[in-house]
Design a protein that fits this description.
The protein has helices spanning about 5-10, 15-25, 120-125, 145-155, 190-200, 230-235; strands at about 5, 30, 35, 40-45, 50, 55, 65-70, 100, 110-115, 135-140, 165-175, 175-185, 205-210, 215, 225. By secondary structure, the protein is α+β, with helices and mostly antiparallel strands. The radius of gyration is 20 Å and the shape is elongated. The model has no long low-confidence stretch (mean pLDDT about 95). The structure holds uracil. The site of uracil has 8 residues, from α5.
Length: about 240
């Protein structure tokens, strides 16, 4: 049966559907030996040969999703141009091409999903789905009720964007630092760090502990585990 080229690439674990469109535009994908750069091309996986960077693309990989506890000092990509450690180095699953779902900053730790399930990536990263993500943040300084209220109601970021309402709990207030738990429903670049900076209490440490219904639990830093079918189903029904 025919399907769109970008959907086929996503289903084969090459990248998310949107990222696959970029790869097509960049001229990295060929169908039956001819490079395709236009969107809308349909292919029949049983008859057509699709290549990405010259390598044949096949749908033989079992759909697999893992949760890792990302340590600080790892980049959230499959390949880094500066040869820094990548989150994909932490997963030893030969033959599987797994890609990060969304992004954690270089120094952020905690829950990150890696998958070859393009549909799941699409679902979780779609801005209209507002998947909640919860972080524990250590902030510089003793934060007050006023700033906690500002974080909850929405703050103006450095680019003029106003954040949507968030859930924020104060966990601990010491003389020169504070700990908060914050749940956001959107995913702007460096969002938690920028929100905290906007209210004058910059982030010292940041860890993601939950995404949708999935909790990091006691998974150790640098470790990973494969998600069960029911965990994947619960993620896909989240909105
Ligand atoms: N917000 C940030 O600022 N950084 C992250 O890594 C995740 C959310």
């Amino acid at each position: 049966m025919e399907e769109r080229l970008q959907k086929f690439l996503a289903d084969c674990g090459i990248a998310s559907r949107r990222r696959s469109e970029d790869l097509i535009r960049q001229g990295l994908v060929a169908v039956n030996g001819s490079v395709v750069t236009e969107m809308g091309q349909k292919i029949d996986p049983d008859k057509d040969e699709v290549t990405f960077r010259g390598q044949k693309v096949t749908a033989e990989q079992p759909l697999t999703t893992v949760m890792i506890n990302k340590p600080a000092g790892y980049v959230t990509t499959a390949h880094d141009q500066f040869a820094r450690p990548c989150v994909t180095d932490l997963v030893d699953m030969p033959g599987l091409r797994l890609y990060p779902v969304g992004r954690l900053d270089y120094q952020t730790t905690g829950l990150l999903l890696l998958t070859n399930d393009g549909e799941l990536t699409n679902y979780l990263t779609h801005p209209g789905h507002h998947i909640p993500k919860t972080y524990e943040a250590k902030l510089k300084g003793a934060i007050g009720e006023k700033e906690l209220g500002q974080l909850r109601n929405g703050v103006l970021l450095d680019d003029g964007y106003r954040t949507s309402p968030a859930q924020v709990e104060l966990v601990l207030k010491a003389k020169d630092y504070s700990r908060i738990r914050i749940t956001i429903y959107e995913g702007k670049n460096h969002q938690v760090r920028r929100m905290a900076k906007a209210v004058g209490f910059p982030v010292l440490k940041l860890k993601r502990i939950q995404e949708g219904p999935l909790k990091l639990g006691n998974l150790k830093e640098g470790q990973y585990r494969i998600l069960s079918d029911s965990e994947i189903q619960s993620l896909k029904s989240e909105d």
